[in-house]
Amino acid sequence: MLKRRHPRTALALLAAGTVGSALTLSTVPAAAAAAGTVARVAGTGTVVTGGTPLNARSAPSAGSARTGTLRNGSTVSIVCRVAGQFVSGTVTNTGYWDRLADNSYVSDAFVRRADSAIPKCASATPLPAVPGAWMLPVTAGLISGFRTVGRPAHDGVDLAASRNTPIRAASAGTVVRVVCNVSKGSCDVDGKPTLSGCGWYVEVQHEGNVITRYCHLVRRPVVTVGQVVSRGTILGHVGTSGSSSGPHLHFEVHAGVPATRENAISPIAFLTARGLPIG
Q1: Which of 9, 36, 63, 117 could share a disulfide with 209, CB 3.0–4.6 Å?
Q2: pTM score, two decimals?
Q3: Does the domain made of 10-113 have the CATH classification 2.30.30.40?
Q4: Nearest in space to 41 (alpha carbons), one of 81, 1, 4
């Protein structure tokens, strides 16, 4: 299994500035309420920062646009929770973010919640759709989905590409990891289901702190850490290294840096929103 470490990014979420008022359902702008955009509140919480205002964001990551600030001690009205960038905060360490009644997001790491059973949000897309910015890494059918009932810990999708098919960067970015990850033996041989790990894999960081991960390569990726790649750059070739029963590409999308289980999102939903359905 991949061993992932979470950086302490608490201070990245806090910024000095005008102290915001408590964000409760009653303080949502009248225009939003009139337009019917106010979602049903599932619970409340108290902002706990130690004194510094907490930034509210447009998406569940510290790199997204700031929509306002909340003062320490403010009461927030929470609609749902969604996986996003992992944050070490004053209340807890977590990859969950709270969507508030005005559709902004705050890290749950800084919220002491009165209600423990906050539902998960239906979806969250960390980047707007930009025509032409993304592509499918391989042209192949879907053989296993994201966190299905049968595989709830499957943090990506499996695409049925044949051995030695070129794997292309899904969007422009920078290579941040090139790793052999296997519980026993080498990544330069075919893997098997009794092993654990992604085999040879590569990660690319894109605009907006989105990371894509490409697993089970047949040999070491042809790119290096720090290399800037364009959309469509060949990263390596399809194989079956690591925990794998046959040649395919395991592809993941993460809404946060570094890529963790907590910030993995559905590649199907992510790419479909960009006009690239996985069939």
Answers
A1: 63
A2: 0.57
A3: yes
A4: 81
In the block, tokens 């969507």 appear at 99
Residue partners of 135: CB distance under 8 A and separation at least 6: 168, 170, 171, 231, 232, 276
- C-alpha distances out from residue 116 to 97, 108, 139, 146, Å: 14, 12, 42, 26
Query: How many Å apart are CA 278 and CA 267, to the nearest integer?
Result: 9
pLDDT, mean of each 10-residue run, the chain (279 residues): 43 38 32 43 91 88 82 92 80 86 89 84 54 86 89 91 95 95 95 94 94 97 95 95 95 92 90 84
| Domain at 142-272, CATH from 2.70.70.10, 3.50.50.60, 3.40.109.10, 3.40.980.10 | 2.70.70.10
Distance CA 169, CA 173 (A): 8
